Amino acid sequence: MKIKLVIFIFLFLISYSIGIKISNEKTKIRLNIDNEEIIKESFKTNEISESDSGNNKNDSKTIYIWPIPKKVLNGDITVYISPDFQFSTNLTTSTTLKKAMDRYYNLIFIEDSNPHSGISILKEIEILIKSDDETLQLGFDESYEIYIDDDGDNGGKIISQTVYGAIRALETLYQMIKFDYEHQYYSIPKCPWIIEDSPRFPHRGVMLDTSRHFYAVDVLKEFIDALAYNKFNVFHWHAVDSQSFPLTSLTFPKMTKGSWSSQEVYSIKDIKSIIQHAKERGIRVELEIDMPGHAYSWGIGYPEVLPANFSQSNQCQQPCPTECNIPLDVSSKESYLLAMGLLREFNQQSMFNETFFHIGGDEVAYPCWNSSLTISHWMKQENLTSFQDAAIFFEIKAIEQLIQLNKTPVMWEDAYLLFGSSGITEKLPLEVIVQIYHNPLLAVNTTKDGYKTLQSPYWPYYLDNPSVDWEIVYAFEPSTGINKKHQHLLLGGETCMWSELVDPSNLFAKVYPRASATSERLWSTIENSNSTTSAKPRLERFRCSLLSRGIGAAPLNSTSPQNPNSCIFLATSIEIKKSFRSSIKNTIRNPPIWPAPLYSEFGNNSIIISNEFNFTIISESTLLLNKTLSKYYNLIFIQDNFINSSSITLNELKINLKSKNETLKLGFDESYVLNITKGGIGNLEANTVYGIMRGLETFYQLIKFNFQDNSFYIENCLPLTIIDEPRFPHRGILLDTSRHFYSVDFILRIIDSLGYHKFNVLHWHVIDSQSFPLQSKSYPNLTNGAWSNREIYSYHDIKRIIKHGKENGIRIQLEIDMPGHAKSWSVGYPDLMPNGWNDPLANCPDYDVPLDPSSPLSLQIASALLTEFSGDDYNIEYTDDHHYYEDKNITFDNLFHIGGDEVEYQCWNNSNRIKQWMKENNLNDFESVAKQFEIIIINKLLEIGKIPVMWEDAFKLFYTDLPKDVVVEIYHDQTTAINATNNGYRIILSIARYWYLEYSYSNWENAYGYEPTLDLSQSNIHLVLGGEGAIWSESIDPSNVFQKLYPTSSAIAERLWSPIGNTDLSNARLRLESFRCSLLKRGIHAAPLNSSYPLSPNSCYQS
After folding, report:
1. How many angstroms separate the first and last alpha carbons of the chain?
2. What pLDDT does 1100 receive?
3. Is residue 431 annotated as a catalytic residue, yes or no?
4. What is the number of other CB atoms lying within 10 angstroms of the CB of residue 666?
5. Which GO terms describe its molecular function (predicted)?
6. Which residues of the chain have pLDDT under 50?
7. Which of 50, 124, 363, 1011 is flagged as catalytic?
8. Residue 1072, SS3 per DSSP
């Protein structure tokens, strides 16, 4: 007879400081077992071990949690989650906890769910916190326990000492919860769960260098999000270096003259925002201001701190700023004034309240002091016999300053080796934490000498090294060789992302998944994390969870995908520098607007934008207009604007919307007129809200921010008049989500980026032979052909995508390719495939089998899909101030793409069924078969009011018999475009040689140089609707999609929007460089103009 074991968890939580009291509570963990001994044996079977935590042959027992917890006990029951599920907590006063619960609720429950009829229904998880102390310092408590019953009646519990332990528990819970797309419910498999977890090391971080390339605040926040997902707890911010000084200092405001440009600076508001964002995720922000080395950028604003005549030394690294490493002049009083002043300023409670403060101390280039008589004279006065003594003199001052400020100095190993070198009697203070970056065995000596230590050996923890893969990172054991009695001095470690060849375009693919390997080794016990074999399937799954949350982690053993697959189951001197910057600035003619407007007239006056600036609607308003204005206001005014000048300022931009018609279809009006007088009167006028959107994007690109006086301004172009409209009505990007899956959040970001470019179409090539991820209510088994049950677009997802498209003026044009490229259809409905296709004699490509046109089910399903996805089931209810507005115009675009390309006729060759059907229908060849199928589909679309779009193969198949209603998309050569338009067909250009973005030779100049109307008769140009760049995803996934998209498709955007006369590559390059910067600033990771990654440290704005 089965019995239930009841485990009582007594929670005695008493906090005298805050008065939190939780009464003793009994939580039942029910287990379907026969007796207590069987329980123990059952849990032994499921405890983490090398064989059970990652062996594919024993997948049912694999614990897909990253990093692996310290102790896991679980069963084999599935508990279903109620649609009314909620988190609750005893610590209702904590804003940090409330934000975390809301954040994870929104991360987990992204789909509409149905109630489950089963008996095990989980309605609530209670989060019990023992202390309200939210101090973030070394050793803060991150431990947690999770208890999930197997019947759901008693809910679930998360118990932790602090809110940060609860945040780590919520990440674990996120990875435990699954969604069933077929039945539309959430569940937690393998219940009951008992998880007891805490980190192995107290310091687990990633260092990011923001000096050699600048990262916008939103990118840094996304970076911090990823740290939290990995259960890291430190963001080591290597903010400044020789290349640039982007940190705003109120004490020394000229420091930011050493930034790459006035737009690549972190304001005080930015810094505080980054620290707060990190705190809410349990991430300490450890600032590094390296000294006395790596200080060239300091001297841009304060030249007196650099050694005299350093450029005369052949051994002093040149050129500056890209490759030099000029140290401070340690004999200069100004150097000490500046260095100690910065330490005091950035260690105020209102700034960095983290105890650790990194002062570098590495790679002091002594030869740069060789030519300075001032330094030689000073050394004699101070009885210093070597440059090493001089460096120690300075470093002791900095260390003492930090200790006086109650901070813990952190320094690179150079300081430990310097103080311990021959002839040096001065000892490195024991308060200093030593960070190792060469030989990890140096930790044996540092810990033996009593120094707390961090491991960051360049092999394997330097992520800019392309030869280090995740297995090498994972195999590294930080404590190797350290005496057990000294191991408590090993605080943990950090992986390091140096940015010489990295910027926002490739950051996340460089960091992850390799840093994820570090996160598990630093969090989990040695026993639980000593096998790459068991780790691999879990890390593959965890990478998928990163991708689903918008973190572009690369494949495990490649910088880009190698083939289509599933994520889930993949198994200068100062003067030269100044003149360089000014020459760039003076070369750009007029404001660098992208794409170039139809007509523009600019003056040469500037204007400051008032701190009371607002958008003023002088016409009728709509909800979509309000959302658009709010979006751009928040995109523009990301800094505090302190200017309230008595001089002329721009106080408002008047918005005049002439029509409330928000219908999105081919030819919708996107024109606008923007006027700003030198007297500060601004007007933006458009016929539709979509014209307002395009005008606001232009306005956004006009505005700059001055970090010196905290003001927004428009420079050297007033008065201005811009009259603008697109050249072509159809301007889009094709995204293939079949060969690799893209999460909804990624698609929404792609839509955002399309709006920034003034594109107006997302051509969603959603399905293909490789996978069928589109949920169909008519034929639900079609998604059996998805890569996995987690890589599916539900109806809720589709609604979000179409809605977001509308909010950006982007038509969502669906493509369901038929009859070719249909193998994935047959996973759920095998009768759709021609019999005999897999006979070797048929020579049918396994990856590209067409539908069987003789099967009644083929036409039945094809017709049903056209009807289903041409309907209005996707209507959206907008909410505003508790009022609801139903939008009847939320549907897929009126252009519906049905493919018709690359039908592999040989796959029908061995089918007796097809041959018999051909005889019955008097069809003599396979071309006739394809024609009969396609004409039925075309007529079906026309019947339901859609405009069919087909690849050029259909035109070549039918020629002039193709109905004139069909729009032909050309992808081979211009000759077909000429033939199609000569015969009266409307066309869309996507010539592979120029506009297919996956090719290695694809670049912006090649794309910009292609003219869509080339060699077309003047009388036929009206038949060119526009064009599309295409992202085919065989070797592209979320980890590299933005680098592949931009800036090449940025060139396409201008070619399709701007007048035909815009062909000046030199001018285009300067404007495109500036536009790329605006994309990076908004979190769109566009690659450098002529490389897939940065080739050297540089400015985005001055590259």
Report:
1. 76
2. 64
3. no
4. 18
5. beta-N-acetylhexosaminidase activity
6. 1-57, 569-589, 878, 880-885, 1103
7. 363
8. helix
